[in-house]
C-alpha cells in the first residue's frame, strides 16, 4: 500500500488509538450538522475530488464492493487528493455494526482517511426493535439522516455512486 505522509500519519494515529477508541464515545455530527456547510472527521486539505458512496443494502457482497470502490478511487487519484465518504442507512446500516464482517476493513480504511457515516434515523428505528441503540464500529460517524447527508454532499459537488 503506497500512502502519502499525511495518510501514514493518520493511519498511525488510528492504530495507536484503536484500543481506546473502542471504548470512546461514538463520533457524531448530531449537535453540529449544517446542511449548507458540510464537515468531515478527516482533515484532507489537498483533496480536489470527492466521492460519496451510498450503502442501503443488507448484503455483505455489496459492502465488499463498496469498500473495493473506495480503495480503488484512493489508489487512482492518490490518497491525499480525494475525499471519500461512505453513507450507510436503512438495511445498509448493518455494514457499520460492531460485529460486521467488514469491521476490520472499515477500521483500516478509516485510517486511510475514508469517512463512514451512519444514519441516526435508522439507528433509532433499530433501537425500537432492539431495546437499545445499536453498537457501531468505532470508525462510524453518526449523522442525523443518511439520505440528507448524501444530498448535502451532492450539493457540495461530490460525485455519487451506489454500488
CATH topology, what is it called?
Hypothetical Protein Ychn, Chain: A
The global form is globular
H/I helix tally: 6
Pick out the low-confidence regions.
8-23
Content-based structural category: alpha/beta
Please list the strands of the largest sheet in the order they lie side by side: 1-5-4-3-2-6
Beta-strand portion reads: 15-25%
What distance separates the N and C termini?
A: 23 Å
Largest sheet features: 6 strands, parallel
Structure overview:
It is a single chain. With 163 residues, this protein is of the alpha/beta class. The chain has one domain (5-161): DsrEFH-like (Hypothetical Protein Ychn, Chain: A, 3-Layer(aba) Sandwich), CATH 3.40.1260.10. The protein contains 6 helices and 6 strands. It has helices at residues 5-16, 18-21, 60-77, 103-111, 120-130, 146-155; strands at 27-28, 49-55, 82-88, 115-119, 140-143, 159-161. A 6-stranded parallel beta sheet has the order 1-5-4-3-2-6, sandwiched between helices. α1 (5-16) packs across α4 (103-111). It is globular and about 45 Å long. 35% of the residues are buried.
Short overview:
The protein is 39% helix and 17% strand.
Provide key terms for this protein.
6-stranded parallel sheet, single chain, alpha/beta, Hypothetical Protein Ychn, Chain: A, 17% strand, 163 residues
Topology:
Blueprint: H1 5-16, H2 18-21, E1 27-28, E2 49-55, H3 60-77, E3 82-88, H4 103-111, E4 115-119, H5 120-130, E5 140-143, H6 146-155, E6 159-161
Parallel strand pairs: 1-5, 2-3, 2-6, 3-4, 4-5
Helix pairs in contact: 1-4
